[in-house]
Structure to design on (728 residues):
């Protein structure tokens, strides 16, 4: 089964180049999955099958790796990716309250995507910016010194 | 590039940074304005400050006399955005775009520094210059020698700071065994956490006979509360690249891998650029510096798994597999990446190598304590005034770090404990503030140096809740391969959840200790073996808090949501 193109063809060509580079080489598994995740925002089933075929890895191993690492998602993600840091510094400085407010505003538990796919909310372990804890990122943009009060104003910025 | 060309480049590059080093410059610049571009400062808007500074310099026509440089992290994350003005080294904190005009008109035009923007210590004193600041005075920077001083990705500025001098020395004057001997002499211990003697590790790999060997940098810094590796990878990538090249020469490897965690996109970006630049000038790749030594490095980006910081798991991940640890022996030095002998060291360990080669192992061994030589980078965070990145000689007391460098606990609250070593570590309570910090002393207190994360907590922190936090982390990050870690940490977490909800039973504390000890003894890798440490250590010093939760159904710090005292739940 071949993978259908569901998005930008240019980027799919890049994936094809990667498939060619790692043809029959199981060592490229994470590199290839990371590229698919980057292009599609998640790992569509067809691509997992294609990856298994191209790299010569059992599909069960592909699935094993895809579910092992936090960076990979088997489900489509929201348009905006909200990551709240739950490293120690953020934790002792009040990240749990921010988490509670985020979950309340979005109506989902962390680790999920809102039904309208506007937001995905994830808890991450240490972004390495402990000096400005608690830290939250939305689509990579950093919000330092977070408090529960700031949550709704920040979320309103993302449609 | 050959040896002579390298020295020529060093001489010219040196001229361009002399002003920053307190040496007499020969160029026309009167001031070097350094803007911190570390991740902490970027997150609180240093880009706007930088743009304002650039514009102000142009508006006042100072381009010929003022040089603007974006550097890596200066270490004072709490005070960002930070600007340093050389030659004197005035240190301006929390510089907003609207403050820039005053720095330009007063300082850069009239030579009068702006006192209100200088660092004000907690005791009210003003410490205007970097050299005045207690924060810096007690530090000794080896691994962080270039951070905050040079342009992050400029190989010229790196070379000006004695960059590639160590590699040149190794290739011209030293045999692989001599390189390994120098590292042994330094007494350097692995800075990733376990503290294994680095030189001994190098010797193991050197002694192996193989057609192919590998050198790896472990840049999977997942320990919550530690960010020194991030800083080195972002702010001084060449120091790691040069050291790995030296490592390759010393053990006979031609290929290296840099495993950097996905959560550090800037580190990946800077390291990638630095690799390309090093290749371009002939300091990486085939026939380095015109010799017959060839070495190259490839980047592998992590995919979000804490356990990949464990070396055997990391190697599995580079091979494209699930990052699950395997039993050792065989150690990676014998059978590592793709089954070949592999030299794997942490970022900070690598960052210490070049100064050791240039100044000698004996020099490095003059710092530190008898068994813990040299300097260690700590990340100070949590309830402390000066959060940031500090590098200190081992043997310094915890009090010096917390009170002098860290400026104490904010809000007039009392210091309660320092949690060191992250999820594998433990707490050091106030009674031990005068303990000299080294590997042995911290182990005796039931904690570890670990990767160097140091979280300060005050009286408003519940120690049971903190232990629960770490357990939640390890439980979440357990790879699940071995039962003690997969199920044992789950059971411990459940007990802690019970206790913090006020429904703990009296026998829970004993059950926790029993579980903790059996997990320590039976887990497969370091992650599982050390997972109970936060519990054991908080129980050791704060058992009364556990008992208050269980017996009185109260949280002394007022953190856990407990039913009111006296009520049955």
């Amino acid at each position: 089964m071949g993978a259908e193109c569901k998005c930008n063809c240019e980027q799919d060509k890049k994936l094809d180049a990667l498939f060619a580079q790692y043809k029959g080489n199981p060592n490229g598994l994470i590199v290839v999955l990371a590229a698919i995740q980057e292009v599609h925002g998640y790992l569509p089933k067809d691509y997992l099958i294609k990856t298994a075929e191209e790299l010569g890895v059992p599909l069960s191993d592909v699935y094993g790796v895809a579910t092992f690492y936090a960076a990979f998602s088997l489900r489509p993600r929201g348009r905006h990716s909200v990551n709240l840091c739950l490293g120690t510094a953020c934790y002792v400085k009040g990240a749990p309250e921010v988490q509670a407010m985020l979950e309340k505003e979005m109506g989902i538990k962390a680790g999920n995507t809102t039904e309208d796919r506007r937001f995905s909310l994830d808890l991450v372990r240490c972004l390495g910016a402990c000096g400005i804890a608690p830290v939250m990122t939305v689509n990579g943009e950093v919000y330092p010194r977070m408090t529960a009060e700031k949550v709704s104003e920040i979320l309103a910025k993302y449609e | 590039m050959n040896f002579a060309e390298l020295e020529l480049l060093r001489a010219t590059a040196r001229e361009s940074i002399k002003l920053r080093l307190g040496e007499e410059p020969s160029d026309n610049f009167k001031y070097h304005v350094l803007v911190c571009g570390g991740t902490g400062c970027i997150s609180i808007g240093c880009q706007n400050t930088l743009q304002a500074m650039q514009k102000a310099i142009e508006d006042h026509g100072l381009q010929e006399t003022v040089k603007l440089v974006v550097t890596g992290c200066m270490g004072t994350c709490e005070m960002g955005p930070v600007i340093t003005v050389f030659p004197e080294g005035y240190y301006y904190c929390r510089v907003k775009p609207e403050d820039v005009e005053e720095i330009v008109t007063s300082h850069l035009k009239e030579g009068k520094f702006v006192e209100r923007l200088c660092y004000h210590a907690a005791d009210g004193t003003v410490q205007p210059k970097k050299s005045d600041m207690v924060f810096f005075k007690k530090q000794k920077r080896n691994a962080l020698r270039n951070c905050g001083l040079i342009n992050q990705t400029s190989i010229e500025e790196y070379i000006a700071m004695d960059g590639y001098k160590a590699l040149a020395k190794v290739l011209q004057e030293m045999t692989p065994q001599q390189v390994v001997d120098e590292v042994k002499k330094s007494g350097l211990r692995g800075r990733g956490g376990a503290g294994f003697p680095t030189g001994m590790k190098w010797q193991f790999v050197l002694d192996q006979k193989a057609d192919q060997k590998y050198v790896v940098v472990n840049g999977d810094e997942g320990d919550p509360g530690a960010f020194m590796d991030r800083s080195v990878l972002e702010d001084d990538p060449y120091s790691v690249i040069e050291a790995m090249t030296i490592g390759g020469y010393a053990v006979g490897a031609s290929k290296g891998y840099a495993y950097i965690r996905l959560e550090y996109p800037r580190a990946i970006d800077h390291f990638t650029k630095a690799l390309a630049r090093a290749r371009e000038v002939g300091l990486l790749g085939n026939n380095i510096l015109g010799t017959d030594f060839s070495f190259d490095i490839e980047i592998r980006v992590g995919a979000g798994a804490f356990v990949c910081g464990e070396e055997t798991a990391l190697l599995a991940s580079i091979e494209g597999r699930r990052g699950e640890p395997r039993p050792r022996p065989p150690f990676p030095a014998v059978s590592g990446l793709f089954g070949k002998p592999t030299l794997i060291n942490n970022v900070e360990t690598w960052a210490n190598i070049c100064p050791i080669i240039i100044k000698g192992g004996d020099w490095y061994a003059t710092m530190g304590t008898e068994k813990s030589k040299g300097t260690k980078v700590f990340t100070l965070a949590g309830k402390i005034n000066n959060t940031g990145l500090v590098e200190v000689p081992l043997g310094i007391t915890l009090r010096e770090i917390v009170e002098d460098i860290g400026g104490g606990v904010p809000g007039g609250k009392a210091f309660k404990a320092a949690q060191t070593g992250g999820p594998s570590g433990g707490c050091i309570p106030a009674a031990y503030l005068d303990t000299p910090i080294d590997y042995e002393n911290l182990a005796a207190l039931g904690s570890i140096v670990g990767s160097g994360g140091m979280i300060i907590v005050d009286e408003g922190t519940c120690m049971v809740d903190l232990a629960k936090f770490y357990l939640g982390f390890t439980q979440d990050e357990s790879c699940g391969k071995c039962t003690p870690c997969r199920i044992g940490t789950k059971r411990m977490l459940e007990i802690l959840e019970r206790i913090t909800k006020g429904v703990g039973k009296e026998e829970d504390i004993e059950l926790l200790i029993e579980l903790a000890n059996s997990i320590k003894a039976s887990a497969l890798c370091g992650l599982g073996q050390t997972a109970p440490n936060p519990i054991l250590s908080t129980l050791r010093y704060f058992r009364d808090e556990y008992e208050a939760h269980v017996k009185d159904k109260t949280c002394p710090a007022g953190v856990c949501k407990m039913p009111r005292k006296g009520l049955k739940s």
Remarks:
- The mean pLDDT of chain A is 91.
